[in-house]
Amino acid sequence: MMVIGMYKNIIKSLILIILVCTSMVLTYLIWNFKPQLTNVDTAVVEKKTIGPRFIDNIKNIYMPYQVVSYNEGNIKGTTESHLIIEMTNFLSESHIQSAYLIDNNGKFQAENIGNRFTLFDFTVDIPQTMYVTNILDMNYKSEDKYTFKRLMIDSESRTNVNIYLIGKTKVLKIETDAKSQTFNKMLQQERKSMVNYTSLVTNELTSSDKMQLYIPEEADSVKAYRYIADRINVKDINDAVLDDQDNIIERDRKESTTYFSNTGIVSVNDSDIYKYNNLSEADSVKAAPRDILVKSFKFISSHGGFTDDYRLFDINDDNRMIDYQMYLGGRPVFNDTGLSNISVIWGKDDQYEYRRGLLSTSVAVPSTQEVEKLPSAESVRYRLASSKEYRFDKITNMLIGYEMKKSADSEIQANLLFEPYWYIEYDNQWLKYENGRLK
Hints:
By secondary structure, this protein is α+β, with helices and mostly antiparallel strands. 21% of the residues lie in helices and 38% in strands. The chain contains eight helices and 24 strands. The chain has a 15-stranded mixed sheet that branches. Strands 3-7-6-5-4-1-2-8-9 form a nine-stranded antiparallel sheet. The protein starts with a helix and ends with a strand. About 4% of the residues have low confidence. This is Regulatory protein YycH domain-containing protein.
């Protein structure tokens, strides 16, 4: 019996040793296993981008075109992006103590506010709720559809900062926990680099000092610039926008090239304008543009579409188009053919139309072209106010921008020339001012 028991113990030990060895071998094989990737039927394909992916800050895209500091009639202003972002970041670090709507008669007298205030000016009406939640990062919930075009910061009437988002019919007043003293100290420092501004009254709605148009007093120091143009590769943008890459049909015509896929159509014309239409959204009702601003931003940003400094510039409610415009040195860039614009129309579930210029700025080169110095703001005001051709009360905005011109196609490397001009928003249309005329 003792012998049988001894054999049993030996057999158990052998089995245990075999199991341990097997486990060690299996562990080694698992650790060193390399799949035979060449036998995989479907490769993982990542869509290309036409610029760096997801580096865009939404605050930059929905940035005001200028900040104005009104100090008892001493008016300073700036279009410098870093100063505007610094002030925006200061506000976005605060919290809401209370928020409520105020009726607005269009003039917004705001008698309880003193003679010192700061303004953010935008070129288009922006939804109040969208801006407060997505740009200022404040916890604010509202179903209201009210918009604003000017934001006023009151850091004088109380210990904490008040913000007013001024719309045509309603003003959203936000009382924050941001300290007025801290904001004023920052503002005092930033005013040193701001330039002199002047006010402009064009009609009854701009009669209040809170609602006047504020513009740079002088413009003779604004220079022209020239850049080498980079052309965005059409294949790269097609890879980022079109699905079903293996079934794209390309057809060349005299003045354009068209690409057909199962999901959309792309046309590229000789003026370097790219236009994509989503076939699945062709028959759907187009979304209200102000409801999908964040969606449009994410769509463009997801494939690096903001290839230069772009900002929201206009919204066309008739055709439901959102328009982002190129900026240079903090000033908007205009181009007759649309080279300086990115526009999006949204359908029911996805983008319906995507239109953009294919040129972006590369290396700056010296400009040899003589550019006439711009007239002063007062000179422009006088010429327009005394002209019988225009109604002065139809002027709703005035700023300095650039006209972008592309060099002749015969050149080996295309250049982009940026020439400064006064631009006037007249009867809801942006027009270039030149020698007393609007063009």
